[in-house]
Structures are given as C-alpha cells and as structure tokens.
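--- STAGE predict ---
source: upstream dedup step, 1 unique chain passed
mode: sequence only
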Amino acid sequence: MSVAKHHVMIKGVKDGLVFLLNDACEWQDLLSELQHKLEKTHQQILTGPIIHVHVKLGSREVTDEMRDEIRSVIKQKGNLLIQSIDNEPRKEAVADEPRVSMTTIKGMIRSGQTLHHEGDLLYLGDVNPGGTITSTGNIYIMGSLRGMAHAGIDGDDKAIIAASHMRPTQLRIAGIISRSPDEWGIEEAFMEFAYVKEGKMEIDKVHQMHRLWPDTNTTMKT
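--- STAGE serialize ---
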C-alpha cells in the first residue's frame, strides 16, 4: 500500500513499512508533515501490532540531531519500531569532460544525400559536392570533404570539423558559418580542421589540433 502527500511517502513492504522522505524540502516542513500523517491521516495503517519501520532520507545530509528528531516523531506511535534510518551520499557534480568515444562509419556521401550522427563521428570516405554530413559532436573525415559539413549541430561551438582533403562547399559549427574556402589563406587543402575561436570559424592544419585540448587524452571506441 502506498500513500503520498507532498514530502512523505509511506509504503508497505514484506517486513513492515518504508518511510520515504523528500530530500529537497525544508526540514521543519518534512517533520510537520510526518507528524500530521502519523497522528491524523494514516492512523488506520499505523495501529495494531508492532510494525517495523525503515526510514529513507534520500540524498539529504543529516546530523545525529536530525536523526533523533525523526526517531522522536515516529516513536510517538508506540507500535512503530524503527529498524533503520538511511541516507545516500550526495553525488558530486561532474565537471565537463572531454569526449572519450567515437563512432566510425564507412561509405560515400553523394550529391543529395545526408548523413546525420549523434555524438563524435569518424567518417571513412568522401563527401561529394551536394552531399551533407552533420553531427552533434566532432566530425573527422578520412577522405575528401567537398560537400557541406555541420558539427555541433545542437549548439556545441567547441566541436570541430577535420578532413584529409578540405574543400567543402560550406562548413558550419553550431550556428557559425565559415567563409568561402577561397578566403582561408591556405594554399593546400590537405589534413586541415575547422574550429571556432572568439565567435569566428578558423582553419588550421590537423597537426595543430592538439592546441585546442592540450591536457586531455581521449580513447576511441569503434
């Protein structure tokens, strides 16, 4: 049986009851509602022979004094026997980490065709004029990019586009569009990558890519 109202949920289990207490509300509000349910709204299921009670506090950080307050409220019902009062360690916020996996796809994208991928993409093949390749993450093309490529399509302006032969009709990273390839100022089109710097798209040789992530190591999974 399960009864819930705002911050306190009481569930019947095989060996008694579990009190699930909200870990985000104010502590005094929680105690007040627990008291109210024990005295008023849940008298029928909280009377009779001895009932074993397990209290779950979620990820709330509690002191010994707070545990004693819980015991004091519940012990007012003489037939409730507290077996445990548990809380889970609060998970630490995880800092942004470099991408550590990549999907490999082989093929050729012809005029009128579009390939879309969620995450980082290693594409083994050519993207012909009129073809389009898009990804929410980075795009690495081991072949000729002569069509359109759009990396970070969901707004990730940290994404890059790299190609063995870089002569696209258009490059996009997040919402930023590249200049015409004729304006890049690079005579050769081999092993280059595009990235965003201060809101503008830049082109450089692939061997300079390490400057974007100088302190990270990544592992590729296929």
